[in-house]
TrEMBL record:
Its cofactor is Zn(2+). Residues 11-342 form the Enoyl reductase (ER) domain. Its EC number is 1.1.1.2. The lineage of its organism: Bacteria, Bacillati, Actinomycetota, Actinomycetes, Mycobacteriales. This is NADP-dependent alcohol dehydrogenase C.
Length: 349
């Protein structure tokens, strides 16, 4: 076992503090790598603050992880020392259910996917995430980062990127399709970039127009304020696909009304309260309401390769680990454009 520096939460109310954690010895199928960058996801904050259930403190968050391989196990065939690699939201799954066999490990029906942090690994020990200096992961749950994507910009792709890429690909976004993205934050800005790269006509639906210049620069064709009631009249029945990236409870009837016949609204944020879905806006035009959660290993690799090919990367602000707590406060006040990424150099020792 090896000891590495990390930042951990010890309670829902205390700030994250520097500590040390242990990583397992490299097994035959393991890849060990130094973490160079880790993105801050809103899910990290929800988990740390016990908003999604009681965590197993101490929690070392981080599931947008990018780094460089330092050691591989004797049976590893996919990676070698020096490779640029990443890890996303999970580090294992049952490997035996139909979903795992189909490459949909995020929907594992056996053990369930094993989260990169705040979960229990196959060896019975807690998993710790990317706010740390190094990590050891089975090679089958490691992603290859193309050389053309800088590691700091690669990190957020492992959650924010795949969270948007998967539904866009599943619902066939592309030329001739009209896609709307609700919210222009860490998730939403990636949705705009990826949908644009796929060739879709992209509209941003945001509370106000204050980020309109950014939205159009990032690839949106149109931008509307949802605080303006005329927006819902003007855009009624327009979209083939709407991706909701915000976690607020919205007026579902109003947003479903923006869908064309057979259109789909996909929930990607996790609202605090149950959704209230009126029948008539849903049923009248055979519209669908669905959900999506990250992506499996094959699709995540496909996403990384797509982003490399189309030069799609997130807008980031790189910070030092000792700024994590301030960054959390800024995320909560929507004061980031558009993703914080931790430079973990000081944690690598």
């Amino acid at each position: 076992m090896s000891t590495v520096s990390a930042y951990a939460a010890t309670s829902a109310t205390e700030p994250l503090t520097k500590t040390t954690i242990t990583r397992r010895e490299v097994g035959p199928h393991d890849v060990a790598f130094d973490i160079h960058f880790a993105g801050i996801c809103h899910s990290d904050i929800h988990t740390v603050k016990a908003e999604w259930g009681q965590p197993n403190y101490p929690v070392v968050p981080g599931h947008e992880i990018a780094g460089v391989v330092t050691e591989v196990g004797s049976e590893v065939t996919k990676y070698k020392v020096g490779d640029h690699v990443g890890v996303g939201c999970f580090v294992d799954s049952c490997r035996e259910c139909d979903n795992c066999k189909a490459g949909l490990q995020q929907y594992c029906t056996g053990t369930g996917m094993v989260g990169t942090y705040n979960a229990i690994g196959r060896d019975g020990t807690p998993t710790h995430g990317g706010y740390s200096g190094a990590i050891v992961v089975d090679e089958n749950y490691v992603l290859r980062i193309p050389d053309s994507i800088p590691l700091d910009k690669a990190a957020p792709l492992l959650c924010a990127g795949i969270t948007l890429y998967s539904p866009l690909r599943h619902w066939n976004a592309g030329p001739g399709k009209k896609v709307a993205v609700i919210g222009l934050g860490g998730l939403g800005h990636m949705g705009v970039k990826i949908a644009h790269a796929m060739g879709a006509h992209v509209t941003v639906l945001s509370q106000s127009l204050k980020k309109m210049e950014d939205g159009l620069r990032l690839g949106a064709d149109e931008y509307y304020a949802t605080s303006d009631p005329d927006t819902f009249t003007k855009l009624a029945g327009k979209f083939d696909l709407i991706l909701n990236t915000v976690s607020a409870n919205l007026d579902m009837g109003a947003y479903l009304g923006l869908l064309a016949t057979d259109g789909t609204l996909v929930e990607l944020g996790a609202p605090e309260k149950p959704l209230v879905v009126p029948f008539f806006p849903l049923g009248a035009y055979r519209r669908s309401l669905s959900g999506s959660m990250i992506g499996g290993i094959p699709e995540t690799q496909e996403m990384l390769d797509f982003c490399a090919e189309h030069d799609v990367t997130p807008e980031i602000e790189v910070i030092a680990p000792d700024y994590i707590n301030e960054a959390y406060e800024r995320v909560l006040s929507s004061d980031v454009r558009y993703r914080f990424v931790i430079d973990t150099a000081s944690l690598r020792g």
